[in-house]
Amino acid sequence: MSEFHDDYPSYETMYNHDDAYGKKARRTLWNVFWIMLAITIFELIIGFMAPSHGWSGTWWLKTLFIGLTIAKAAFIVIWFMHLGHEVKFFKYVILVPYITFMLYGIFIILTEGSYAGESGRFTKVDPILVEQQKALRAGHGHGAAHDAGHDTKDSGHDEHKDGGHH
Amino acid sequence: MAHTAEIDTKDAWGGGKSPFAVSYGKMFMWFFLISDALTFGGLLMSYGFIRHKYADVWPKAENVFTHFPFVEQHLPLAYVGLMTFILIMSSVTMVLAVEAGKRMDRRGVTVWMLWTIVGGLAFVLSQAWEWYHFIGGTEEGWVRSVWDQGANNGAGGYVNKVWHGANMAVNEYGVPQFANYFFFITGFHGTHVFSGVVINFIIFLNVLKGTYEKRGHYEMIEKVGLYWHFVDLVWVFVFTFFYLL
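The joint structure predicted for all components is written out below.
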């Protein structure tokens, strides 16, 4: 077979590099790491602050978190998995089918799944669960656990409830 | 980028060489990762659908994951933050092992592979700890209506009683589907991490034996590295959809 492939390039070694390039590459990789760490710490701080500031479940918080997640994913794929260094054809072969499938899936879930949000119509939920989330979202900790069995005991806190707006 | 592979587009498709300028092994690792990513994507979409369906009664992560080892305080999200840090860190040590391999630096590959394995094990054990607390539950628990065969003179029926922790049918945190998806998605991811640690360990032994030194290249490190980074990539999404949102 070798007569066909005498000039067959060695793809296994074509990305090898020398010490000088390695030094530069390592610096880039550590920078990527610090950026990703900063994003994660930022997300945790925002996530920690959200309940007391009433940010939980707001559209902008969801958008922010999903946006930062996609940014981190891009960092991993481009720098850690070296997809940024591959030839253009290969990038497309990997990314285009996947992104197409995911966009299709999200489209289907948002259109065909829209009935799921009409709670009560297709979903029967144990009233105890509703009580529990109401109590927790009104700021009751585990101390309220045993009260949750008594119906509507916490109705005085209804002005705080944010259940339903999601 | 000095390192982008150069390929002459005029004869790229003429045969005899890969138009993608990647070896067979690396290309199929990518194809495998795409199929695996579709599985995870499907799982997370299904999770999003069910969560939307039960939006009013879906528990909030900050009310569920509040423990931290050796600390008695209520610390929501701190532990999962640590887990995320461990996994990103092990991703960095992995990519440094790949970089060392490209310089044929056997010592560098050995050291960084070892750190990656340590990080992976730390993550798996952290997850075991989290599962243990999730299944065991809180001391206070919460009232649930559960089936009792002894009720109604032996006819059986649902009775209200305080329930601790979680299983596939009942959990103290909220709707049963919450625990189902937690077990399935973090379990599926944890299985990936565990098999990643095993694969990394086998490759680490090969590095010690000098298999890749003899072969003349360390591309195998890059291939297992792709898998390991993928595991990190999935966790970034699981972290967002389970714990942050």
